[in-house]
Design brief:
alpha+beta, Phosphorylase Kinase, domain 1, Aminoglycoside 3'-phosphotransferase, Chain: A, domain 2, two-stranded antiparallel sheet, 8 helices, about 35% helix
Length: about 325
């Protein structure tokens, strides 16, 4: 269970595309002086539930390519706000639930989410805690240890998946609860991306070779003990930072409960070094076959980058598929 859901109020559009096992009730607000609905719900929330009496400044925060991010400075402290004028609140709902789940573990620092909602004119927003980041990504060994502590602390009794579907970048990420990890990862991660590549690009070659890989993928998990751990899900360098005290901070999750090794799927652009892995495996011991499985978790993210950004990532994905077919069909 997510303990901090009471901190978040959700507003849903009528075209809610994401399934959920939870039912959310909208909080009842006291009548306000203005009878009409505010055209700026972000400002309205900050000046009421956010306990601020004035907003002293708004400044852009760089780093994202999908949403617009801003810092709202107020007399009650600063808030971090992300907005998207094209997409409804479902994407931010998934992010808020993921942040809440990670926040509950009290392991690695994440921004606390406060509010998700829709703009009257279309689009959506999320308001969360603003964390003053430091000048570096922090100590790699501390990051490895704290990430492992999060994985160890948060397990699921429902199997593999998450309470809602969410997004990886802007690609839908299906999180239907599944009891078997190999089935979940094969169908809801790899096969979903393979089908998308076929639909978007007519890429029957990568789809057909991917199907050959999926038929034999179980051999990669022999002798491994797999538990459903809470994963950040999109852990690359842009989503890793540190606070002003040097403690690691992780941002912009695509959370679900999965095999802990899947967390390293973005290692090709995360910069994890030896000290990171050493510290991580002191808390979460390395499973047999870890090295031979590493690329199967890279494959999901290479396929997603192919689907999001185009053919520049196709060769990396195809190379992994070809290498595994050669090994597994030998």
């Amino acid at each position: 269970m997510v303990a901090h859901l009471g901190l978040i109020s959700f507003s849903f559009s009528s075209s809610h595309l994401f399934h959920s096992s939870r039912q959310f009730s909208l909080p009842l607000h006291k009548p306000m002086a203005m009878a009409t609905l505010s055209t700026d719900p972000v400002r309205e929330w900050i000046l009421t539930e956010g306990k601020a009496t004035q907003i002293t400044g708004i400044s852009p925060v760089g780093g994202g390519c999908i949403n617009l991010a801003s810092r709202y400075n107020t007399d009650a402290g600063s808030f971090f706000v992300k907005t998207n004028r094209r997409i409804g609140p479902e994407m931010f709902e998934g992010e808020a639930l993921g942040l809440s789940a990670m926040y509950e573990t009290k392991s690695i620092r994440v921004p606390k989410p406060f509010k998700v909602g829709a703009f009257p004119t279309g689009g959506s927003y999320i308001i969360m805690e603003y964390i003053e980041v430091g000048s570096s990504r922090g100590d790699q060994s501390i990051l490895g240890r704290k990430l492992a502590e999060m994985h160890k602390a948060a397990k699921s009794e429902n199997g593999f998946g998450f309470h809602v579907d969410n997004t990886i970048g802007s690609t839908p990420q299906i999180n239907t609860w599944t009891s078997d990890w190999i089935e979940f990862y094969s169908e809801h991660r790899l096969n979903f991306q393979l089908k998308l590549a076929q639909q978007q690009y007519g890429d029957s070659a990568i789809y057909e070779k991917g199907q050959r890989l999926l038929k034999n993928i179980a051999a990669l998990f022999e002798d491994a003990t797999i538990e459903p751990c809470l994963l950040h899900g999109d852990l690359w360098s842009g989503n890793i930072s540190s606070d002003k005290n040097g403690e690691p901070v992780i941002l912009d999750p695509a959370c679900y409960y999965g095999h802990n090794e899947a967390e390293f799927g973005m290692s090709w652009c995360a910069g994890f070094g030896g000290s990171f892995y050493s510290a991580y495996f002191e808390v979460m011991p390395k499973q047999p076959g870890f090295e031979k499985r590493r690329d199967i978790y890279l494959l999901y993210h290479y396929l997603n980058h192919y689907n999001l950004f185009g053919s520049g990532y196709r060769s990396s994905a195809m190379s992994i598929i070809d290498d595994y077919i050669r090994i597994l069909e030998a």
